[in-house]
Amino acid sequence: MPVSHVPLPEGRLPTRYSVETRWLHWLTALMVLVQFALGETWGFLPRGTVVRVGMIMTHTSVGVLLAATFLTRIVWAVTGGRAIRFPVRNLSDQVARLVHWLLYVMLGAEIAVGYMLRWSRGRPVMAFGVPINSPFADMGVGVQRIFGQCHYWLAWGLIMVAACHAMAALYHAIICRDGVLQRMLPARG
Question: What is the pLDDT of residue 3?
Fold first, then answer.
């Protein structure tokens, strides 16, 4: 049963997000970091090597899991699963909301462009050995380069915004000591 999105009175604000919301957040963060690390390192290996091919296959498989997790997060947020809404009281809260929206938009775009990069070659996206066939014919090298550059720069942009998000969380934990980071951490004992 979904919980109402009505904010609680000031003195009764929850201390942390639901277990499901926290799992989805940290799972997304982990997969984004794995995807970025794989994408930035396989280029150092010779083409056709088993390790490089394995890294690319892992990247596409984790990408499909990331897409599923991303869609789950969207459904979770709009259907009332993520029922806790912390109030927006000041500029800092407004910036935090904007950054969260930016992360969602950038991640959604990165996932979509990743699929299009693969499909623009007329190739399937392989997830754990199962093909997700391309609905498109080969679009040519020029289009593939555009999708490749977009995928590359979106990845870097996403990592930069996520790093700022993480630094802001640490700032709240270490400098402000206001409990903001604890909202996304597991409950103690």
Answer: 38
